[in-house]
Amino acid sequence: MASADARRFRPDSVRAALRVTGLFGLAFALFAVVLLAAGKDPIRAYGDILSSTLFSSYGFSEVVVKMIPLMLTALAVAIPARIWLINIGAEGQLFMGALFTTWGAAHFAALPAWALLPLVAALGFLGGGLWAAISGVMRAHGWVSETISTLLMNYVAIFIVSFFVFGPWKDLESANYPQTPEFPAAARLPMFFGTRVHLGLLIALVALTVYHLVLTRTRWGLEIRAIGGNIEAARRSGIAIGRYILVLMFVGGGLAGLAGMGEVSAIQGRLRPSLSPGFGYTGFLISWIAGGNTYGVVASALLMAVITAGGDVLQMAHRLPGSVVNILMALMLFVVLTRRRIP
Questions:
Q1: Which of 77, 83, 79, 85 is nearest to 227 (CA)?
Q2: Inter-axis angle of helices 90-107 and 279-290, to 10 degrees?
Q3: Which of 12-21, 105-114, 183-192 shows the lowest per-residue confidence on average (mean pLDDT)?
Q4: Number of H helices, E strands in the chain
Q5: What is the pLDDT of residues 28-61, one digit of tens each?
Q6: Phi, psi values for residue 191, rounded to 5°
Q7: Which domains does the chain have, with CATH numbers?
């Protein structure tokens, strides 16, 4: 039985690894041309990025810190995508999760850490999940495409956060800098080994494991794959399509909300409008590169974290503008889109 499972597992994992390697390899080759056009040595640039991230203890810890929200937002996209829902709203869902977390940390500050941390985590999940569920309801009733609604709701969520940070929740002691008061110690996620790597890493890994097991070992996973394979056949078989749309959008948004919870609870310690440098959009790219595969999500998140962490090296050591990282990510998205089959 174990050998049969192994034979069934290897082709998917190898295929996902080859897919991720090939897509990144092509994007890096194209980016090397851009570096050459700018008069830079691409081999030296890539070497400097690796030496400052993967081959440095501090650099590697910062890569892991960036991986946490990237894995969670990638799952926020990958889960609805199993039934062909395109969730571009992980960024807004992340912000709403952070907003709900901040409310919980402020209103239940007297609770001990063992009670407050699960509470703010649940609120973060709820905030992101409810925000995504709005698009799920509209999609289930055939009113608005989730692609459009989730994209537009990103901006609404960011403006809502800005309203509270600049308005009723603003820290009066921070002069003109927009931010909320600092979280109580009981609402701060613990960090490990004297680094900024926090408990969110365990949350992300557990979410990835549950995602893999549900899809491969449960009846729900079978029905999800049936909907993704042929939605009309699944409907005729009695599968409740609308219910799965709502549930998968809620769960996906909830995971993005957990990413926001981790950022405010562990990294920043308070809510700011500059909460995310685009984790939700990068997570969307990661999910598409990985094709929804669990191991592909981890590998893609690692490489994207290396790229974003190594962007500072390109600016300081090679005197390149900060936008150069965005060029590389745009090349990756272009490669992913061109590799998709056109029906």
A1: 83
A2: 130
A3: 12-21
A4: 13, 0
A5: 888 899 889 888 888 998 898 888 888 889 999 9
A6: -110, 160
A7: 2-339 (1.10.3470)
The winner for highest mean pLDDT among 124-133, 168-177, 269-278 is 124-133
DSSP state of 180: P
Neighbours of 193 (CB within 10 A): 8
Q: Which of 214, 215, 198, 211 is nearest to 67 (CA)?
A: 198
Q: What is the distance between the alpha carbons of residues 183 and 180, in angstroms, rounded to a whole number?
A: 9
- Which H or E run contains 256? helix 241-262
Using DSSP's 3-state secondary structure scheme, residue 30 falls into: helix
Given CA atoms 219, 223, 146, 73 in this order, what sign does their dihedral have?
positive
Q: How confident is the model at residue 11 (pLDDT cuts 50, 70, 90)?
A: low
How far is 215 from 122, CA to CA, in rounded Å? Answer: 23
Coil, strand or helix at 9: helix
Indicate the SS3 state at residue 94: helix
Backbone φ and ψ of 342, nearest 5°: -95, 120
Please state, in angstroms and rounded to a whole number, the distance separating the CA atoms of residues 62 and 340. Answer: 32
CB atoms within 10 A of CB 34: 15
C-alpha to C-alpha distance for 91 and 87, rounded to whole angstroms:
10
* pLDDT above 60 for 1: no
Collapsing DSSP to helix, strand or coil, 198 comes out as: strand
List, as one string, the DSSP characters of 7-30.
HHHHHHHHHHHHHHHHHHHHHHHH
The residues that bridge with 198 in the sheet, in sequence order, are 191
Q: Using CB atoms within 10 A of its CB, is residue 337 exposed (0-12), middle (13-18) or buried (19+)?
A: exposed
Task: Decide if pLDDT at 222 tops 90.
Answer: yes
Give the C-alpha separation, 58 to 240, whole Å. 48
